[in-house]
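#onboarding

Welcome to the new folks! Below is a worked example of what a typical request in this channel looks like: someone posts a single protein sequence, and someone else replies with the predicted structure as tokens. Don't worry about understanding the tokens yet, we'll cover that in week two.

Example request:
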Amino acid sequence: MVSPPPIESLGRFPTSKRKMGIGVMVPVSERTGHPGTPRFSQIAEIVQTIEAIGFDSSWYADHFVAGDPTVKEYGVWEGWTTM
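Example response:
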């Protein structure tokens, strides 16, 4: 049986000083713990702070709308474009 390559060689995740990398979910829509819809400049500041503190990654939701028929539809910044 062939062993898989070391995860570091895949280039997917930054090198971490920890055994398990720790990331932060970035608010990219209304109702995500951020007052109102975060603007791009605010998202950039959040991500820069995440990096400065020493987290290994930032994560983004990739939904265009949140689907709940009992709640008024609201938007979400698209994840790939936001990155």
